[in-house]
Description:
The complex is a heterodimer of chains A (110) and B (119).
Chain A: E1 5-7, E2 10-14, E3 19-24, E4 32-37, E5 44-49, E6 55-58, E7 61-65, E8 71-76, E9 85-93, E10 97-100, E11 104-109
Chain B: E1 4-7, E2 10-13, E3 18-25, E4 31-37, E5 44-50, E6 53-57, E7 64-70, E8 73-79, E9 87-99, E10 102-110, E11 114-118
Parallel strand pairs in B: 2-11
Antiparallel strand pairs in B: 1-3, 3-8, 4-5, 4-9, 5-6, 7-8, 9-10, 9-11
Amino acid sequence: TQLLEQSPQFLSIQEGENLTVYCNSSSVFSSLQWYRQEPGEGPVLLVTVVTGGEVKKLKRLTFQFGDARKDSSLHITAAQPGDTGLYLCAGVRGFQKLVFGTGTRLLVSP
Amino acid sequence: DTEVTQTPKHLVMGMTNKKSLKCEQHMGHRAMYWYKQKAKKPPELMFVYSYEKLSINESVPSRFSPECPNSSLLNLHLHALQPEDSALYLCASSQSKVGQGRLMNTEAFFGQGTRLTVV
């Protein structure tokens, strides 16, 4: 059973469209992280959300942590081809294990 | 310096070879990780080192042997691998802090990975 489920698994959109990626769990996390990974590279940390209900913005990316700290969302406004990549949510389980969600593969076409 | 450096970037090895993957960080992080990632899948945790001691082994086969010589270095020794072990191997590090009376790891910073091919 996957601890962190992401949806959708794959998203193909045109440049300029908006999108939302969801990360859901039945477990409570003290914090959740979002990473973006490009082919052949390691994941790059985008943001950490800690407080239930917290909203963080990173340019055109908006991250929200659910009130119960079991879920999170990533919203991208006016997507660009440079946003293409694998988006991963992750959380620390049992204080030491950083585990990843199932991943969302985003393709933004010009 | 927020870099985690992994070497080599690419490695091709035969099933009878012995090789090592290396990872280095100078951020003062006391938790270090090895992950394995197959194509189009999320990274899967293999090992966690906390303060240079192995704290988590996710039932990884003994042909993978981790080593943490000091707080900045993490190695993964490989021996008698199988073709299905071909994958991207990622090293990461994170801070450890005390929270809820326990040592907790925070967000991780990753290296670029080693693309391993077993032939």
